[in-house]
Amino acid sequence: MVADDSAVLALDLGSTWLKAGWVRPDGEIEALERAASPLRSDAINAEDVWRAVEGLLARLCRSPQAPRNILALALTGVTRSHVFVDPAGAPLAPVMLWSDPSGEEQSGAVAQAYGIDRETAGHGAFHPLARLLQFTHEHGGRPHAMVELKDWLNFRLTGLWATDTVAYSRIRPAQDSGLRLEDVLARLGFTASVVPAPALPTHILGPVQPSIPQALRALAGTPVVVGSFDTWASSLGMGAIADGNVYDISGTTQVLGTFSRMPRTVAGMVSIAWTPDLWQTGGPCQTGLGTLAWFARAFLDSDNPADTLAAAAESDGVDLPICLPYLSGERMPWWSSTLSASFQQVRDRHRRCDFALALVEGLVLAHRLALDAMDARRPDAFLYMDGGGTLHDAWMQARADAFGMRVRPSASGDSPLAGAALTACIGLGLYRDIAQAQAAINAGGRVVEPDPARAAYYDSRVEEFSTRLSRDLTLL
C-alpha cells in the first residue's frame, strides 16, 4: 500500500520545453513546472542540459506540493539525442540531436556491417551507429561510449550506465540475421562496451548518489528508473500499450503507431520491440497542427491552429477541393523531402473557409493512409490520443470520422510525464505489469465517437485523395 502523500518526480526533456511534475501512482500530475529547453540551441552542451534539469528539479523539490515520500525519479524525453563520452562520462562533443543528418556518409558502411540493403527502413543518416562512425571520423578517435541524452542524465544522477531496451532495439540485429550487436560493432571497429548494456524501461537503475548537488539533496537515495523516450512513455501514459491498440500523439507533427505480438514488415516503417512481448509499428509524420498553424499565418493573420479549425467550421463542406497537405515533405510512410502541398479541383465558388476545411480533410486522410499501411484501422478499436490536438474538439472529431474509430483522449493531460511515472511504479512493484498500470488510469474517461454520415463521407473521398497523392509520388 502506498501512502497518500507519495509521488514520483517525473521529467520530460522536450525540444521546446523541459517539463517536470509530481505524479501520483494513478497518473495524476501535480505542481507541473516547465522551463525553456536548452535543446533549442544550435550546439548543445550536455552539461548545460544537466544544469537546466538540476534547476527544474530543484524547483519541484521546493514546491509546497512536494510529497513526504518520494517514490522514484523518472526521466523521459526526445530520442536520437546522442552524447559521446570519455571513461569518466564527460561529453566529448555537442549533443547530436534527432535532426542531425551527418551520419549519411556512414550509412552504407553501417548497412554493410549488418549485411543488409542501405535503403532498409531505419538504416540511413540517423541510425545510431552511423552517427557513432561519423563521430570517429570527425574527432579522430573512438568515444568510450555513445548514449542517449536521457541515459547520460541518469548516469549523472546514479553513476550507472544503461541503454533502455526500446532504444536498443533500433540497433539490435534482426533475429534471423544470425548476428549479435557485438559482431556488427566489431565490423565497424568498436568494442561491445561502446553501447551500454540494455535494461527494461521499468528496471530500477539505482539510487541518486549522495554526492548530488546541494539543491537536489532531498533526492539522495531516491530510486531512478531506466525509462525510455517520450513516444514510449506517452503510449504508456495514454494507456495504449496492448495488442492491436493504436496511439496518436498529436502536436506540431503527428506520431502514429500500433502494437502486435510479432514484428511486422511494413514499407516505410520500423517495427521496434516496445515490451518483451509487444512490437510497435509506426513512426512520425511531418504533417499535423503545424500545418493548420501555417494556414492561420498565411490566410487568417494568426498563428493558432484553432483559428483554422474555426474557419473550417464555417464551410458548408460541399464539393471541396482536394488538399495534399505536405508543406515540408513527409516522413512516415513516404519518407520524401520533396513531396509538396497543393489544392486541386479548385473552383471559383470556393471560399477561404472551404480551403481551411479541405486542409483539415487532407491531413486526416493523409494520416488515415498511414494507419491503413499499418493495417491498424478497425471500428472496434480505440485510437488513444494525446498532445495539443486533444485541446481541439473539432480536430479529434475529424480524426474519429476519417478513421472510423473511437478516439480516447489522454486522461492525464500530459501522457509523457504520466507514463514516465507509471514506468517507475511498475519497477517499484506498485503495479505487477504495464496492463495493470494502464488499468489504473483508463477507468472512465471521455470517448469521441465517429459520426456515421461523416465517416461515409471520408470513405467517399479517400480514393480520390490517394490517387492524386500516388500521382505526385510517381513524379518525384
Automatic annotation (TrEMBL):
<dbReference type="Pfam" id="PF00370">
    <property type="entry name" value="FGGY_N"/>
</dbReference>
<dbReference type="InterPro" id="IPR050406">
    <property type="entry name" value="FGGY_Carb_Kinase"/>
</dbReference>
<dbReference type="Pfam" id="PF02782">
    <property type="entry name" value="FGGY_C"/>
</dbReference>
<dbReference type="InterPro" id="IPR000577">
    <property type="entry name" value="Carb_kinase_FGGY"/>
</dbReference>
<feature type="domain" description="Carbohydrate kinase FGGY C-terminal">
    <location>
        <begin position="250"/>
        <end position="427"/>
    </location>
</feature>
<dbReference type="InterPro" id="IPR018484">
    <property type="entry name" value="FGGY_N"/>
</dbReference>
<dbReference type="GO" id="GO:0016301">
    <property type="term" value="F:kinase activity"/>
</dbReference>
<feature type="domain" description="Carbohydrate kinase FGGY N-terminal">
    <location>
        <begin position="8"/>
        <end position="237"/>
    </location>
</feature>
<dbReference type="GO" id="GO:0005975">
    <property type="term" value="P:carbohydrate metabolic process"/>
</dbReference>
<dbReference type="InterPro" id="IPR018485">
    <property type="entry name" value="FGGY_C"/>
</dbReference>
<protein>
    <submittedName>
        <fullName>Xylulokinase</fullName>
    </submittedName>
</protein>
<keyword id="KW-0418">Kinase</keyword>
<keyword id="KW-0808">Transferase</keyword>
<comment type="similarity">
    <text>Belongs to the FGGY kinase family.</text>
</comment>
<dbReference type="InterPro" id="IPR043129">
    <property type="entry name" value="ATPase_NBD"/>
</dbReference>
